[in-house]
C-alpha cells in the first residue's frame, strides 16, 4: 500500500508500508480460533478509570465478566469518587479474582492522568494488549474476541505499535437503541490512508473501544498535559509510529445519559452546533483550534525525543525509525505554519498542500476560515533532532 505524505516543500515522499492494513470485514464463519491465531503467552489487561460511576458501573463490569474470551485481567482505579463507587469496587473485586483495584494516595487526577496511571500499571504487570473501558457502557459478549481476531488477521503483534478501535451502538440510559452505528450516525470514518493528516484536527477513534499494544504504550507514555483526550493522543501516536486497525462491528453499547463526559450528537445537530461556533465573531473558537495545535506540537517534541533515543542506541536506520522521521518531518512542517514568518494566506495554502483536513467538507471549510484568525506569531519551540 502506498501513501502520499505531502510534507516536503520540494517534493512529495511516498511511504511504502510492508503490511496492508485494509483488511476485509470478518464474517462470523471466518472468525479465527484465538488459541491458534494468538500466541498462548499473550496477556490481555483491561483498564477502567471510575469517577462517581456507581449508577452504571456494576452493569459494565458484569459485561466484561461475561466476555466469550475469559483470559483477561481488569485493573480499576477510582479517581476519588464520592458516590460509593469505591465500596462497589471492593465488592466486585471480591466476587472475581481477575479484578484488581489500584490503591494510591494521588487523589483526583482527571481522566487523562488516571488512565495514564492505569496504562503504566498494566505494562508493569506484563500486559501484551491493553483494552480500555469506560465506566458506564456495556460490552457486547464477543468484543474482545472480535478485536483480538482482527489483530491476528492483520498480523499485529504486541511488540509493534498498534491501536485497534471499533464502531459502537448508541443506546439510552436504559440501553434502549438510538443508533446501531455511531460512525454512520456522526458520519465518521476510519482513515487507512495518512490518518495523521486527519487526526491533527479531528479524532475518529473512540477510546472505550480501543485495544493498544504494549509497544505503543511504551512509546506513547507519558500522556502530556497538552493532550486533549487520552484516546486522541494514542491515535496520534499510533498514526505517527505504527498503525491503526479498525473493527467495523459495533462492539460496545455506548450509553448516553446526563453525565456523559463527551457523548453522542447526531450529525445534523453536531454540524449545526460546530458551524455556529466556528462562524461566530472571529476570536470565538480560536482557543479550541489552538488546543489542537498545542497537542500537535507536543507530539512533534515527543517524536523528536524518540528519534534521539534511536540515535543513541544505534537503531536510526531501522524501518520504524524511518517512519518516525517521516512523521516528525510532517509535523514539523505543519507546526511551522504557525511560527513566525507565515502569513495567514500562506498558512491555508500550506494546510491544503499537506492535506490536513477534517472529514466533513463543510466543517473543514469553516475550520480553515477560522484558522485565519489564529495568531500568526505563535510561539512554538522547534525541537532539535
TL;DR?
The protein is of the alpha/beta class. Helix content is about 40%, strand content about 15%.
Proportion of residues in helical segments: 40-55%
Provide the structure class. alpha/beta
The best one-word shape is globular
What separation lies between the terminal Cα atoms? Answer: 28 Å
What ranges have pLDDT less than 50 throughout 5 or more consecutive residues?
1-26
CATH topology (fold) name of the largest domain? Spore Coat Polysaccharide Biosynthesis Protein SpsA, Chain A
Query: Mean of the pLDDT scores?
Result: 84
Q: Could you name the CATH homologous superfamily of the largest domain?
A: Spore Coat Polysaccharide Biosynthesis Protein SpsA, Chain A
Q: What's the total count of β strands?
A: 11
Rg calc: 21 Å
Strand content: 15-25%
Number of domains: 2
Helix tally equals 14
SSE topology string: EEHEHEHEHEEHEEHHEHHEHHHHH
Amino acid at each position: 500500500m502506498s501513501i502520499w505524505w505531502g510534507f516536503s516543500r520540494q517534493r512529495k515522499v511516498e511511504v511504502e508500508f510492508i503490511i496492508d492494513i485494509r483488511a476485509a470485514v470478518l464474517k462470523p464463519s471466518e472468525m479465527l480460533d484465538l488459541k491458534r491465531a494468538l500466541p498462548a503467552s499473550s496477556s490481555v489487561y483491561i483498564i477502567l478509570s471510575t469517577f462517581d460511576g456507581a449508577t452504571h458501573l456494576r452493569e459494565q463490569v458484569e459485561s466484561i465478566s461475561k466476555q466469550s474470551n475469559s483470559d483477561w485481567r481488569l485493573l480499576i482505579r477510582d479517581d476519588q469518587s464520592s458516590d460509593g463507587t469505591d465500596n462497589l469496587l471492593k465488592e466486585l473485586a471480591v466476587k472475581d479474582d481477575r479484578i484488581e483495584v489500584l490503591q494510591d494516595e494521588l487523589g483526583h487526577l482527571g481522566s487523562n492522568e488516571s488512565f495514564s496511571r492505569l496504562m503504566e500499571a498494566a505494562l508493569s504487570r506484563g500486559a501484551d494488549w491493553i483494552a480500555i473501558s469506560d465506566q458506564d457502557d456495556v460490552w457486547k459478549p464477543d468484543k474482545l474476541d472480535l478485536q483480538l481476531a482482527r489483530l491476528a488477521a492483520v498480523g499485529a503483534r504486541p511488540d509493534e505499535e498498534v491501536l485497534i478501535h471499533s464502531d459502537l451502538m448508541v443506546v439510552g440510559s436504559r440501553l434502549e437503541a438510538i443508533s446501531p452505528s455511531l460512525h454512520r450516525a456522526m458520519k465518521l470514518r476510519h482513515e487507512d490512508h495518512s490518518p495523521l493528516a486527519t487526526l491533527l484536527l479531528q479524532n475518529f477513534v473512540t477510546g472505550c473501544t480501543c485495544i493498544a499494544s504494549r509497544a505503543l504504550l511504551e512509546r506513547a507514555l507519558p500522556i502530556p498535559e497538552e493532550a486533549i483526550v487520552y484516546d486522541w493522543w494514542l491515535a496520534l501516536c499510533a498514526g505517527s509510529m505504527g498503525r491503526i486497525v479498525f473493527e467495523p462491528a459495533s462492539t460496545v453499547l455506548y450509553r448516553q445519559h446526563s453525565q456523559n463526559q463527551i457523548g453522542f450528537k447526531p450529525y445534523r445537530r453536531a454540524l449545526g452546533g460546530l458551524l455556529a461556533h466556528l462562524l461566530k465573531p472571529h476570536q470565538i473558537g480560536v482557543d479550541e483550534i489552538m488546543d489542537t495545535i498545542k497537542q500537535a506540537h507536543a507530539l512533534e517534541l515527543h517524536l523528536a525525543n524518540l528519534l534521539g533515543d534511536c540515535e543513541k542506541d544505534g537503531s536510526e536506520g531501522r524501518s520504524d525509525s524511518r517512519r518516525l522521521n517521516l512523521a516528525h518531518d510532517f509535523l514539523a512542517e505543519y507546526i511551522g505554519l504557525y511560527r513566525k514568518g507565515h502569513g495567514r494566506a500562506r498558512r491555508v495554502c500550506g494546510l491544503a498542500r499537506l492535506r490536513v483536513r477534517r472529514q466533513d467538507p463543510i466543517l473543514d471549510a469553516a475550520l480553515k476560515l477560522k484558522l485565519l484568525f489564529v495568531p500568526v506569531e505563535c510561539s512554538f519551540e522547534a525541537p532539535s533532532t
